[in-house]
Amino acid sequence: MTEFQIALVALTVFVAALTQGTTSMGFALISAPVIAFVEPGLLPVWLLIMMVPLNIYVVLRERHAIDYHATQWISLGRILGTFGGVWILVAIPLAWLSTLIGIAIVLASLASFLIPAFNPGKKALAIAGAITGVAETATGIGGPPLAIVCQHMPVATLRATVALCFLIGQIVSLAVLALSGRTSPHQFMSALVMMPALLAGMWVSHLIHHRVNAKILRKAVLIFALISGAIILLRA
Predict the structure, then answer these.
(1) Which of 12, 20, 68, 124 could form a disulfide with 34 if both were Cys (CB 3.0 to 4.6 A apart)?
(2) In terms of Cα–Cα distance, which of 179, 165, 88 is closest to 132?
(3) What would the pLDDT profile of 188-212 be if each residue is shown by its tens digit?
């Protein structure tokens, strides 16, 4: 990377970490397009590495609010979906997968603005986890399914639960990608260089996260999901 590109990525990481530290979502949406432009070979491993410490921080900060029932079923689907994501990286053109995921996310996000509040059951949680596993392992963007299924949780519960689900899934994805030979030292070193910007974003999120209320957060996560789906379609 050039000095300008390093500065651009660092600024992006700061904003993305601030956003995810406040809402528990948004890091991949904000940073993936920039990384894809600057150095696409870093994806999706770089994103997974960067989000591990970020999600550890959110989980520890709001561990009292975690919904372990939802985490259990989302993580079960997420782990199974990880292997599907690796298989897709090898066997299926990424554009096909991205198109299907993008369309599904956009439609689900639009529908979520209209349907009344709901409490997702085990099946819905597991399916959301599986879709997240496939999407995040294959593309680096896996937040929208969790945003949709968890949108009616209390603010702290949504942040903590989604962060824990992300953390478990990202560790599994990194392990599977490493065993399949799809990681490199350069990806890890590039992530390490950006850790100061990540930590700065996390610190600022600590100062403002408690000011977000449930209504604003629900709208934010649905808009996040909608924009993510559109970006995935455009990338496809």
Answers:
(1) 12
(2) 165
(3) 999 999 999 999 999 998 898 878 7
Residue type, 191: A
Burial class (CB in 10 A: 0-12, 13-18, 19+), 26: buried
pLDDT at residue 102, rounded to an integer:
67
| CA-based nearest residue to 138, from 205, 84, 178, 197 | 84
Residue 177 tokens read as: 């990608």
Taking alpha carbons only, the member of 151, 156, 158 closest to residue 117 is 151
How many folded domains does the chain comprise? 1
Q: In terms of C-beta density within 10 A (0-12 exposed, 13-18 middle, 19 or more buried), how is residue 57 classed?
A: buried
Range of the domain at 202: 3-235
Question: Rounded distance, CA 171 to CA 176, Å?
Answer: 9
Residue ranges of alpha helices (H) inside the chain are 3-23, 27-38, 45-61, 68-91, 94-112, 122-139, 143-149, 155-179, 185-193, 195-208, 214-235
Convert the pLDDT of each residue in 1-20 to its tens digit. Answer: 889 999 999 998 998 898 88
Tokens for 33, please give them.
């397009």
Kindly state the DSSP code that residue 51 receives in the 8-state scheme: H
Task: Give pLDDT < 50 ranges for the chain.
Answer: none
Residue type, position 157, single letter: T
pTM of the model: 0.81
User: Which string of DSSP letters, residue by residue, matches 195-214?
Assistant: HHHHHHHHHHHHHHGGG--H
